[in-house]
Amino acid sequence: MIKFSDLIKRNKKKLKNEEEVLEDSIERIENEINLKDTDKYLEDIDPAASQDGEQKRLENIESESILKRYLKNIRYSLKLIKTKKYGKCRKCGKDIGKERLEADPSIIYCIECEKIIENEIR
């Protein structure tokens, strides 16, 4: 069985790596969105191409939003590691559990609170 201190070290490394990947992905998407903004002249040349471009732009904006939320969770988890509060549920303060943290190092809620939150969203 893995010690919690070893789990924290391993998860910190995973979170740092994921943070870098997400930052790169967000930057790439932002660049694509900005390119689409400068390609507005396509509308005069080929309206169908413009519609396709606009659809892709909207998909990129949605993807960027999702990635930014995930990046926020990762940074929050790294902050919790730094402040030695990692592994505690953000809502109730109970231990999240090693298995859950191994499955998703950025998880911030215990299973019970996660279910409550999911039910509130629905």
Spatial gap, N to C terminus: 37 Å
Radius of gyration computed on alpha carbons = 20 Å
Number of strands: 0
Helix content: over 70%
What this model shows, in words?
The structure is a single chain. This protein has a domain of 85 residues. The protein is elongated and about 55 Å long. It is built from five helices and no strands. With 122 residues, the chain is mainly α.
Distinctive features:
single chain; 122 residues; mainly alpha; elongated
Summarize the structure.
The protein is mostly helical. It has helices at residues 4-38, 42-45, 47-82, 98-103, 111-121.
Compile the SSE list and pairings.
Layout: H1 4-38, H2 42-45, H3 47-82, H4 98-103, H5 111-121
Helix pairs in contact: 1-3
